[in-house]
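note to self — DONT lose this again. spent like an hour looking for the file last time. sequence + predicted structure for the chain T wanted, 193 res
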Amino acid sequence: MFDIHVLDEEEEGVLWLEFSAKLSKLCFCVAICYLPPADSCRPVDSDVFFRNLLHQVYSYQHKGKIFICGDFNSRVGSNSDYIEGVDLVKPRNFIDHTENHHGDMFINFLSDVNFGMLNGRFNDNQFTCISTTGKSVVDYICVPYEDMENIEDFKIVPMSDIINNISYIPDSIPDHSVLYCDVNLSTNEYRYE
């Protein structure tokens, strides 16, 4: 259905994939991101990370629709990912009230590129990281504001649910959930989900 190739892997923590439909001219890009926690032993500068990601979004937007997802270790609390009164975006419900610097930079980035997070805008609003130290929302799927109407569903599936469904007994359970969305990528000829 799609040919997939690596578009860019130059920036630490960001992998860009390009999906090209085999039966039409439909093309879209996905940025898969990992931003280490601020207190990580890995050197991290969220300002530089989001500046580079912003540059990449502008560089690849001509190829087609863009989706951004991953573990940003960004806690945004009640901060809005759009400009209220200007952008016509459905407000999100939030369950994680904590904010951090990564989260502030993430919100600024989303506003700069006119993207919004799917988290909190659908019925399935859960924490994305559940560990012995607590619960948080740090993993996101983000789309351009104008493409939010094409998102038909969004789910957060805890790893414990997946493991229980397949009757697997692992040595340990990953603490991050799987994020999933259905996207209507209709063209005149084909409909992709």
